[in-house]
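Proteins fold reproducibly. Next comes an illustrative record:
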Amino acid sequence: MKKFLLFLFVIAIFAIGGLYGYKKLSIDERKNEIIQMFNKELLNDFVESKKSVMERLKTAKDKEEGNKIYNEYVATNKLMLEKINEAHSELLENVFMADSKYNFTPEEWKTVNNYLKDYDLELIDMGEGNAMIAQVPNFYYDIFKDYVTDDYKDYLELVTKEYTEPYFGIEEILVSHEKIADRLLAWEDFQKKYPNSDFLAEADIEANVYRRAYILGAYNLHTREGGSENPELYYIPDNILKEFNRFIETNPDSPTVEYINFYLENYKNPNIEEILYDKFEKEIVKDYESENSNEPVMKDTLEVITEELRYLNSQIAVVENYSKKDTYLNNIEKLTKKLGDYQDLYVAFSPKGEVKEKITSYYLEEFAEPCNEKAGKLFPDMKLKFVTQDGVKVLTDPNGSGEYLEFNSLSGGEQASVMFLLVSMLSSLSGMGVIILDELSVLDDNTFENLIRILKENSFDMVINEPYAMRWGHLNRSARPESDKPPTRYSVI
């Protein structure tokens, strides 16, 4: 009997083990099937793009450049996420269909997000049967928090909190009335703290969204009751009135107080919701008014496009009718391309841009050739070179060694010679033909004679000081033939 019972026990162990093993095998197969549903190449591209941005941030010269990298990355990333979602459209369209292989159980949904987490992505339920693949809530904050200005950092921190704990579900508020007030005040504080921030429009949108939710509520948060048959029977529940009064007393300087008071005075109006909606709606993309009328028109256009792009991006996050999403995304793609084109043009035509540098370099080359020709008459081996570095810099090789020196490293005579060459060339180009000569005592006799010869060849009108005139006379008597006379057009001072 004991042997029989032992036999039955062993059989049971094997049976249970077999069932467990089969179940585990089945789970593993399903897990592999789920993983195979995703386009790994696109997911890897998303990761590589992040790595590239992080490398750029490490070499950014300052946090303003970090801001620029962020804005560029957000625009690029939205297009990448759009591509990822389009590639997985079949999955996203059927994820809530009971008879579809893409219909995930809660455990399978966790499997998906555990897999996507390695790519900083997640599958999220958008409500009303919609789903999408998006970056994890802390994505941008973790990347940029140490590389951007304070307003960008605080903005990203606020947005991260929004994604981590959404305030609104399918027509219902998911957090307490008091928490709605806290979030509203956080966005108002951001506007006060950073009045010139690039995110002022987004902060205004967020503040108005929370104002609407806080004052008008939702189907699970009624800020007025009764009155369905007679508007005069409308009343504000005690808990809501208590919260409104708390807000007014603790935040008297908040712009929301005006809206609360307006609601308290007009809550019996059957159209109060529409009236408040009109009050909340503000123009986000405003006409750009340049403080400096001399700024290029291109910058004006660039700013307008940028603002419009930000507005459209923000609308994706707050729009309640998700059917408009595709339209917004298409507009974003077009505007992103246009923005990139204008950014390239703006940089190219800026004071330190490529266009100015190339034009300057071209004319400097034309200028350098005659300068070097004259330089050879003063010093046989002297060469001049012009470089565009923090403006225009003149470098001199005085003896043909191939080593170009800055002006301050030259001798007094060499400095005077270089100045004469530059002044004479500019005088020739301007058509004035006038040169003022002074402090030429630093020149040796040979260089001095060469200079006079150049002056005679070019027929300059000169203004010279008396010591110079006396030196000419000395050289004329002692070292030069009688026939060699100074230029005929000169004045002595």
Notes: The first helix runs from residue 2 to 35. The first strand starts at residue 121 and ends at 127.
